[in-house]
Amino acid sequence: MPEGKVSEARDIDAELRKGQFGVPMLSSEKAGWNNILVEYWQMPAHELPPQLLSDYIINLHFKRPTKAEIMWDGRLLSKNFTHGEITILPPGMSCKGISLEDSDFLVLRLQPTLITQVAGELGYADRVEIAPNLGVLSPQIQNIGLALKAELEAGCLSGRLYGESLATALASHLLQQHSTSRQNVQSYTGGLPKYKLCQTLEYINENIEHELALAELASVAEISPYHFARLFKQSTGLTPHQYVINCRIERAKKLLTEKKLSIAEIGDAIGFQSPSHFIALFRKHTAMTPKGYRDRL
């Protein structure tokens, strides 16, 4: 497995991923997102055998209350999960459980290296511990989870940069809300230095046809990914993924105006995975298809 991809071994969803309960309704497995795997499940009553976690697992529960029995910290607990409740499971934790009713949930799986990286950027101690939590409410984590689910439902139109940015934001909220470690507060304001912003914007425009990653752009600016995302937005008013998409749409408009390339060739030239992907995102941002835009010229 390539470095940065979420491990599939020894975690609470191992039996799910083997196909015992079918396949998830939605999955980011083919989206190419580093450090995070997102899966949306709708399942009948089921049993999860004992598992030793290797990743950070955040389960976001949906819909009606679901009754479950869980072995938690050596105790057998009965729990009714309600809409919006979140379960947080850190690596190294051993657990098992039984869902006594149909369940509807989103699984967010973060690789430990991302937590460690963001913790360093936020000024936490070398050893970071995230407290396990059963049925907590967190509007920030819920909003990130819903945004990731919506992105999967849309076919991952916003690209790799979007998923990785949300993964970094999720790691940040997890650390700030649920870490037992002490943070040494660091303040980064004022945006990127002008020369670093210019370097980054130039790089984006010169590589617009490629699938850009958050760590890649942060490397150009010579700053950590977490702080890069924050400072870039302070400088431009847009998140990195919003800026890249805007650049692609504007480049597409220019190429459509020139009328030298087909719509499929234009989509390929500006980094879209397929013509349908290009058409869907262009329509989302302009309220018309590429053909409709070209016909109006």
Q: What's a concise summary of this model?
A:
The chain is built from eleven helices and ten strands. It is α+β, with helices and mostly antiparallel strands and 297 residues long.
Q: Total number of helical segments?
A: 11
Query: Strands of the biggest beta sheet: in what spatial order?
Result: 1-2-9-4-7-10
**Total number of strands:** 10
Measured between the Cα atoms of the first and last residue, the distance is 47 Å
SSE arrangement:
Blueprint: H1 14-17, E1 26-27, E2 36-43, E3 46-52, E4 56-61, E5 66-72, E6 75-81, E7 86-89, E8 94-99, E9 103-110, H2 112-122, E10 133-136, H3 139-153, H4 160-178, H5 194-206, H6 214-221, H7 225-236, H8 240-258, H9 263-269, H10 275-286, H11 290-295
Antiparallel strand pairs: 1-2, 2-9, 3-8, 4-7, 4-9, 5-6, 5-8, 7-10
Describe the protein's architecture and organization.
The strands form 2 sheets. The protein has a 6-stranded antiparallel β-sheet with strand order 1-2-9-4-7-10. The chain has a 4-stranded antiparallel β-sheet with strand order 3-8-5-6, with no helix packed on it. Helix 5 packs across helix 6 and helix 6 packs across helix 7 (225-236). The protein folds into 3 domains: 14-178, Jelly Rolls (Sandwich), CATH 2.60.120; 194-237; 243-295, Homeodomain-like (Arc Repressor Mutant, subunit A), CATH 1.10.10.60. A hairpin with an 8-residue loop joins strand 1 (26-27) and strand 2. Helices cover 42% and strands 20% of the residues. The radius of gyration is 21 Å and the shape is globular. The protein has helices spanning 14-17, 112-122, 139-153, 160-178, 194-206, 214-221, 225-236, 240-258, 263-269, 275-286, 290-295; strands at residues 26-27, 36-43, 46-52, 56-61, 66-72, 75-81, 86-89, 94-99, 103-110, 133-136. It contains 11 helices and 10 strands. The model is unreliable at 1-12 and 14-18 (pLDDT under 50). By secondary structure, the protein is of the alpha+beta class.
